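Final paragraph of the annual report: two paired records, presented back to back.
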Amino acid sequence: MAKNKIAEKKVRKPKGAASRATDNPVEAVQSLFGFSLKGWVAPSLRVATAREVRSGFRGTLVVLSEPQTKRVLSSIKKQWGAIAKWQEEQLKNWLDSKSATDIFSLTLKEGPVWFLRLIETEKHGSATESRDTLAKSVFTRARDAAGAIFAGARSAKVEKLVLDFSHSTREELQGFLVGLEIAAYSFAEVRGYRSAAKRPAILLLAPPVVGDTKELKSMVQDASRLGVAVNLARHLTNLPGGTLTPTVYADLARVVMSEVPNAQATLRVDVWDERRLKSENMNLLLAVGAGAAAPPRLVHISYRPKDRGAEKRPVALVGKGVTFDSGGLDLKPSSGMRLMKKDMGGSAAVLALTWWAANAGLPLALDSYLSLAENSVSANSFRPGDIIKARSGLAIEIDNTDAEGRLVLADAMNVAISQTGDNSPACMIDVATLTGAIKVGLGADIAGLFTNSDDLAREIFDAGLKRGDLSWRMPLFQPYKLGLRSNFADYVNSASGSFGGAITAALFLELFAKPADGDAIPWAHLDVYAWRDSASGAWLEAGGNGQGVLSLSEVLSRFVAGKWAEG
């Protein structure tokens, strides 16, 4: 087991938790929330013989490595025999069309057959060649195709799913397996509100590019682990605000991280309660959580691997964890409050990323901070006009209690930026469902990226493009900071006026991205939606989407090589 040090001696069970005690952390997670960290793809997948993949009622996926119609048709007839004339005609038309979808399906007596075309065409050019800067990468196309194929296999009730990636790239196979793991998640099934559908066995014809069996197994585990991390963030975001209170969330973070089996790292989880928050002058976080029955918490997860890559200093990750946002005394309308259980989606991504990195044994030190509070209404709620002194020493006048996310982030960012010596961060990234303004500008699928570093901006954008977890750089336009002026304090927490809300929110956070007695470090802020309003791609149901996990996992992997600092 890892050298894990849990700050509090005993994990307190929330209301409704199973009464039977368990010493197994994974079972504890399951009993509290139903979610398994084991995943489905890695335990289910195995390399199969040619005989195994040709028996039983099965679904078969064939990834095409060439666009030549005659060769494809010849291969199909060799494997499945003659197919109906109309099926052959439809398949031929699909193969000849450059603007067709990636997937073509046939229904045969042995079971459904899917053909997946990931060959670059006029429709799917590379990002550098396409007019569409945000064109889908091969990884993304394979990942999204996995959703459609998993849904088809489930509908057909096949016994096994045969994957023929014999002539594919590692990136294509990895994207597809990550997509399968994401597609297998169902909140209602996990929580026991709906019977879990039986999943097929996964049989793989190993692609030569992966190498030997050991290398293939490692790649499958990596892909499955990444999909589980996305689903962990989704599941946390889907949990009701009355279930996932700040105190319960802090307990869950300890349980999740205690499961990490990596013996080559030191892992510590510290939970700051009200007394510690007061002693640390985290008055902004305390003010936001003052109106709720469950008090606020700060969770600090320190991950220190024995071996590190080119970057020796830790990377700081900060997540907004407002477990439910009523708007406070500046109360939201009912329509605006409906999805506010997702207001902790940034912290969910940070926790999932930290779990992923520790399980993968990533040779990069991390300090992750979950800033947790519920913005509720009571006689104790903070008020418009209140002046609150932040941990950094700045006096903040409350213009709007519904601009609370930047307040909980501000104090946590100050904790991160104040670390010294070997714990001084190389850079800091915060993830937050911060503004509705960014969704108006970029839509639900693209995160707003604000940063003081061109190098960091490039890495986050490129990583998001590669993994299909998109962001777009927005300006930290300094003249807009005038809107944060206060006649009574250093700054207000929300600029007056209706324009540029995402920018002024990021400018407020920038105030806390610099240590009091030093130069600013590279810092990035991702303003995310953390939600899917409808099913699409590998996400087969609406709800939490784990936004930020795929892109930042790629970014952290690059940090190991020091790539983020390259010109």
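The closing record of the year follows.
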Amino acid sequence: MARRVASWVLLIVGGLVLALAVPAGYLNRTVLDAPTFAERVDDVRRRDDVSAVLGREVSRQLLAANPDLVALAPLLEQTSIAVVRSDVLSGPVRVATTQFHRAMTTESSGQLVLRVADVGAVVAGVVGALAPQRAPQATEVSITLASIGNQDFAADVLHLAGILDTLAWLLPLLGVACLVGAVLLARDRWNGVRRAGWAIVAGAAGLAVALVAGRALSRAAGSGERADAIIDGVWDVFVRPIWWPLGLFAAVGVLLVMIGSGRGAGWNADRVRSWLTVQPATPGGVAVRACAAIVLGAALIVEPAGVVTLAVSVAGALLLCAGVVALARLATRRSGESGQQRPSRRPLVAAAAAGAVVLAGLVVWAAGTPTGEVAGVVNGAVAGEGNVCNGHAELCDRPFDEVSYAATHNSMAVAGKPGWFLGEQGLDIVGQLDFGVRALLVDVWYGRDAGNGRVRTSARSYDEALAVANEELGPEIVASALRVVNAVAPGEPQGAEALFLCHGLCETGGTSFDATLRQIRTWLETHPDEVLSVFIEDHVDAVDVAGAVTAAGLDAYAFTPVQGKAFPTLGEMIRSGKRLVVMLEAGDGRPGAPWLVNGFEFVQETPYTFPTVGSFTCDENRGPSDAPLLQINHWLSGFTSLVSNAQLANTADVLGGRAEQCRDERGTQPTFVAVNYADIGDLIAVVNRLNGVG
């Protein structure tokens, strides 16, 4: 009796656990994986109904800012819809979505908004080309795809991500183990196989009912044309694909039912037809069939595509089984002709093997890593396989100094970030890395936290920092920054002295160096096939920089360049885990931190003060002329037109032409191509062209 009860308990638990494994694995591979999530949000944006409502919203915003354009309203609306639907917004949408995804999985609170900016500027440019006399102003217009209201939910999302990461591989294995145990405990093993199949079918049916109910509720949740379009898009792009693995899951259950019932070899259309048409002999059977018909009818009305997908998946698995059984029958018949006796169940065993293959595939799918990357740990650092390096397989066999890298000047100075008066980048450092930047140029100073998101320069660095800030930013900007800091954070700072990323005077903007290093380590851990460089303008002691890098755990990733010794290939760096190059402009970390080298022992660079595009040169500046690495400093001086300067300097013609010119004049491959506002213009395309990749 106990054995029978245990078998039934394992059947119920196994069916339920395997059913839960399907959504757990799906969510782990899609929603919680940032690149996949960003790609699918972009797919939602491209849908005709979504782009139509968002385009009309952009048009209304532009008309509100330019009322005199009412005569061009139809043109404005059609142009806005076309822009929202076009490839032009793919990059901004994916960058914004990646940042939104990162915010969801960061322990913080407050409202999160998925917003794509600068749409108005694009539409204005297109309309201006079509109707130059009536071109609208490039009003700051954005589209909001999602908003999660004021709630401390990020920690819950983060916790859920960790749970799903575990459940994605644990649930399939646990479910299979329960069903195998149930079969082994059954007195009749074949009957146990049949029951296991029914447990899987029941789990699939329950999940299918939940999906249908979810679809009905999502339709009821709509509150207007815009909400309905986005909800429908999210359902079609994010949820509906789950019907395919669910269909395979159900098909495995049907196969096991047929095999356990001894019908694997005798299944045909007549038998199925009889199941559907012959009246059940008992009232209970009639009731079950009637309820099943009602549920199926409702599902076909609410979610027809999902039901069809489920049916196709089951039919495909059954055809697979039929083919395997036919081959097994042929083998059995030929063996019998030669006088050898074969077990009558051999075709069923073959069908069971086919079902096992399908089930194993589902287990591997659910338990697989979201990004498909296979990473290991070497000397404490996460290391990749080195088959695809910095996004391109072609780069894996090239030495580090023969590859070009997108770089950002003053990477820490982010526009719109609290405390920064003159941002020189549009994305924060993690956003830059996600965008494709692989070299960060930052300045490190001593500072103290003054509260309210402000930083004050430490007393020992103040005079030097003030001189640098006045020279580079101008006395008026510095004075304005000091007035603001004194207003929002009066008095002496309370925080202890620490390292901050500042552009001279930390009062004009400061970001924690320690926190940034931890973000970089997390990014390296989740991107095992990437090589990264950090070039530090050091206004602090080298030993303090080395200590901060070590405290963040980045010393495990740090590669040690040696003068006169050839650099390894990117593939070798990735497989060794030593895929972070850290350099200082002034000092070095020897002897305690030999990996913290003086950059200008290895880097030659161009000048970095150019008033106009026409004044760009490739002349020698710092670093020996025979240094293996070449840094191209490519930005225009002046802080009153940073964005428009980037729009001029970062085009493929200007940036690409200068990079190729410097390559020819200096006789070496440009290593770091550094710009302001890396997300404006063609930096990534230029670097790819230098590397000869797509």
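The longest helix spans residues 304-337. This concludes the annual technical report; the extension proposal builds directly on these records.
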